[in-house]
# Entry
Amino acid sequence: MNTEPAVAITARRASRQRTAVSAYLTRRTTFASAQEIHAALRESGEPVGLATVYRALQAMVEDGELDALRTDDGETVYRRCGTSHHHHLVCRECGRTVEVEAPDVERWATAVAAQHGFGDVVHTLEIFGVCDRH
Amino acid sequence: MNTEPAVAITARRASRQRTAVSAYLTRRTTFASAQEIHAALRESGEPVGLATVYRALQAMVEDGELDALRTDDGETVYRRCGTSHHHHLVCRECGRTVEVEAPDVERWATAVAAQHGFGDVVHTLEIFGVCDRH
DNA sequence: CCTGGACATGAGAATCATTATCAGGTGGCC
DNA sequence: GGCCACCTGATAATGATTCTCATGTCCAGG
# Structure
């Protein structure tokens, strides 16, 4: 009999590299791409292989520690996040990001979906603008 | 004095290739990727170069004839669309798509942005679910 | 502590969508 | 018909991400 959860979360093992990636994202408050993180760590004298950065980021996203989000030009960017469901308000000039909750939107999305006979609903919502420091 | 609109829309010229791409998207009701369109046209005996498909799609998006949307796995998919601002409710099983309007969400997004001092706001919102034919 | 083996790393190759190049082709206005 | 700006398509280039595989290293159990 299988008593494992449907999606097993593989055990993670600590390592200098993962710690470095994690620490970098703790210091940083805006979204960062894998390439950026890789370059920054290399520069700060904590070299980590690019593939390793990608693996660390993937793992953290799976574990719900990070939000991932695709930019227009096809890069995926990451940012530490709170645990509850939320959306982002991002300044397109400086990257400053505010996490916002939108219970009404959640309700609306579910309702509209139901109205059209859709179930098992997820949604994406991001807001971009220019913040008052610009 | 410059009387041109800020973003000039370059003149388009008709051609068998553009017509083919356009016609394909008229027949089709779900989102399609450039690669898919390219393969489908080739198969139906109206070969069009891949680069040309990309160019045609880009042009149509600029002209507001198409909606473009990035999938999780990094492909951009296109679909003919109405002219007014709207969002999509997409079945992740069959791709069936419903265009929905969300005036409340628009207002909400603008308000939240303003609250945090953000201006010049745009937003993205897509809903994915499973439709009742599954 | 010591060790085995599962897990992690990293350099480079591979993938894959998209974009750039550039030498010809062709709409459409005169 | 003729001009020429715009189009096309084969192919190369790009760039992010993933894969490969040989080697390193956590850490539970002894």
Observations:
- The first helix of chain A runs from residue 16 to 27.
- Residues 84-134 of chain A form a domain with the Dna Ligase; domain 1 fold (CATH 3.30.1490.190).
- The interface with chain B takes residues 70, 74, 89, 91, 98, 100, 102, 104-105, 108-109, 112-113, 116-132 of chain A (CB under 8 Å).
- Residues 13-15, 33-35, 50-51, 54-55, 74-76 of chain A lie near DNA strand D (CB under 10 Å from a C1').
